[in-house]
Specification:
alpha+beta; about 45% helix; about 20% strand; globular
Length: about 80
């Protein structure tokens, strides 16, 4: 199973939704809280080119945000990605 990393903040409702969705899939999320570790904000921007959270990675694959993750779940592609 792939490693899941998610850049987020402690106050982001979409981060909470993304984490809950992934936990329902039976995976553990490595949360990188950019409001508690500010240098990670720059790392997130370097990796994604984006400044919004959540930013979710399955392994090295950049999923995007919560809406992107939800679309993957609805299409069945999330289960295939997680199985790799």
């Amino acid at each position: 199973m792939s490693m899941i990393s998610m850049y987020g903040t402690t106050t982001c409702p979409y981060c909470e939704r993304a984490e809950a969705l992934l936990e329902r899939q039976g995976v553990q999320v490595n949360k990188i809280l950019i409001d508690q570790v500010p240098q990670e904000f720059n790392t997130m921007i370097e990796r994604t080119g984006l400044r919004t959270v959540p930013q979710i990675f399955i392994g090295d694959f950049h999923v995007g945000g919560f809406t992107d993750l939800y679309r993957l779940e609805q299409s069945g592609d999330l289960a295939r990605l997680l199985a790799k």
